[in-house]
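INFO batch 0412 | record 1 of 1 | parsing
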Amino acid sequence: MFFPTGDDQVRGGHRPHFAYGLIALNVLIYAYQYSLGPEAGQAFIYEWGTIPARLEAGEGYETLITSIFLHGGWLHLIGNMLYMWIFADNIEATVGSLRFVIFYFLGGIAAGLCHLYFNWGSEVPAVGASGALSAVMGAYIVLFPRSNVRGYFFFFRINIPAFLFLGFWFYQQSSAGYASLGDSAGTGIAWWAHIGGFVFGIVAGFWFRATHHIPRHSEGYRSRHNAEI
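INFO prediction complete | emitting tokens
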């Protein structure tokens, strides 16, 4: 199993205040959610999570945004924030803070709508930043395909090109998503939110590359990498 801890950084660019600020905000919201206790915390998720059946009834459209700040547990939160730490800063540094924030929320909405389409009638709330983060990773594979994703394969420290790491990640999500079609029980994972977000991110990545005149293979990384965790 490969455990990612960091990546190559772009030279200069905008400071990724929002990318790191989103990490802090997600942690604070989960801490509040956890402080409510099991029953009230679950009610909080049902109120602010994305429930397909509720959207079909013309209610709760705001949950397409609020749901991306909720998480089902500490492991869910930590996994998403690790990926935010690794991939989001390069996107913000490249496209700018305002464009990054707009892109992040649009990615979350696109992911939620894709989940809605493939889970029509479901009354299970979908929560988590992974849909919006999937959009970030989709843009990353277009803008920084040769960036090194650094981490550990068991006890061995290795680097993997971003296009391999993210390409394999998307293959896993797609395989699980197609396998889940027609499975009424499901696995509790919003595979199609991941797929929809990633595809949205790829499209946005090509738009960013064209409008920001980013080289096709995006060279020019710092020699240093993210402070690893």
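INFO post-check: Residues 74-95 form the longest helix (22 residues).
INFO record closed
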